[in-house]
Specification:
39% helix; single chain; D-Maltodextrin-Binding Protein, domain 2; 6-stranded mixed β-sheet; alpha/beta; 13 helices
Length: 313
């Protein structure tokens, strides 16, 4: 299967538990970008600690979903936030985890600076495309678009360059190292604000509809042993989403230290940049169908309870 050439980390599945010292704790992994804004607010305002004073909450920020999966496999992380496709790849390879909440929907897409690239057919075999990693949601959406436009989902697989979003933006803006960058807020807005930058593929267009960009995944061990903690974490995330919707000025004051952009610009991104924070999960079945058909998954769940502890998928 093609996916075996893209990842090589799922040889042995370890149990996940961040509680090494005997004190009750939870370790949560996030990534870069405004799609994770509710987590940054939860962390800053200590919503979880306020409701669980006896629980230590550890936060780690990792560069991509492969790093999160490896941390979970190694027992260093209990909860991770990522796109649906890399979660499905982990589950397919034997990871014992489930989706427990949605986090965000966002405008994501493929940005280029090249005058001669207006659609996917204009990419040459030597044109490099930056994205977080093979198997990421950006990669799968690119594959979906390639299947629709070119009839070959894996046509760009040998042209991918793994980069964190900030590094991918730097590479794109240098106009030397990569021809395009498949990215998300705020990087997609920052890139498109620069002269001559343009969008080649939109994520919604590639998917053919709405989809959840980032969702929360929890190990079966943690969700079984600490359902009350998981419920509080889910409620804390929802509370942070309310802060963004009802008081974006407060949200900006919390988030501004993480981004080298003005408060006014950050405010515009949060309120009018195509970001939506919700615990709903959309697109799960469609990702499963495509990824199985194109060889990114070897198996599919018989029912959604195998991969989700949500009431409605």
């Amino acid at each position: 299967m093609r996916i075996l050439t893209l990842i090589s980390v799922f040889l042995v599945v370890f149990s996940s538990c961040s509680n090494k010292s005997g004190d009750l704790s939870v370790t949560i992994a996030e990534q870069y970008g405004l799609a994770y804004a509710p987590l940054q607010i939860v962390k800053e305002k200590q919503f979880i600690e306020d409701q669980l004073p006896g629980v230590k909450v550890n936060w780690v920020r990792l560069g991509n979903t492969a790093a999160i999966r490896e941390a979970i496999l190694g027992g260093k992380v209990d909860i991770g936030f990522m796109g649906i496709p890399p979660f499905l790849i982990g589950w397919d390879k034997g990871m014992e985890w489930k989706i427990f909440t949605g986090l965000s929907k966002a405008k994501i897409g493929l940005v280029t600076w090249r005058d001669d690239i207006n659609n996917l057919s204009d990419f040459g075999p030597d044109d490099r495309i930056a994205l977080p990693q093979p198997g990421s949601i950006q990669h799968i959406l690119l594959s979906m678009a390639a299947q629709k436009q070119l009839g070959q989902s894996d046509i760009f697989d040998n042209q991918l360059v793994t980069m964190k979003h900030p590094d991918g933006m730097s590479a794109l803006l240098s106009r030397r190292d990569v021809a395009a960058h498949f990215t998300s807020p705020p990087y997609i807005m920052m890139e498109l604000s620069q002269p001559d930058m343009k969008l080649v593929v939109d994520g919604k267009e590639a998917m053919g509809g709405n989809f959840t960009f980032i969702a929360g995944m929890v190990t079966d061990k943690f969700s079984t042993e600490h359902p009350e903690i998981l419920s509080i974490i889910r409620n804390s995330i929802a509370k942070a989403g309310e802060v963004i919707r009802k008081d974006p000025d407060e949200a900006v004051s919390i988030l501004k230290k993480d981004y080298s952009i003005s408060e006014a610009t950050l405010h515009s991104y949060l309120t009018g940049g195509g970001l939506e924070y919700s615990d709903e999960v959309q697109g799960l079945s469609k990702f499963i169908e495509f990824m199985k058909a194109e060889g990114y998954l070897e198996r599919t769940p018989e029912n959604m309870d195998e991969i989700s502890i949500l009431q409605d998928n």
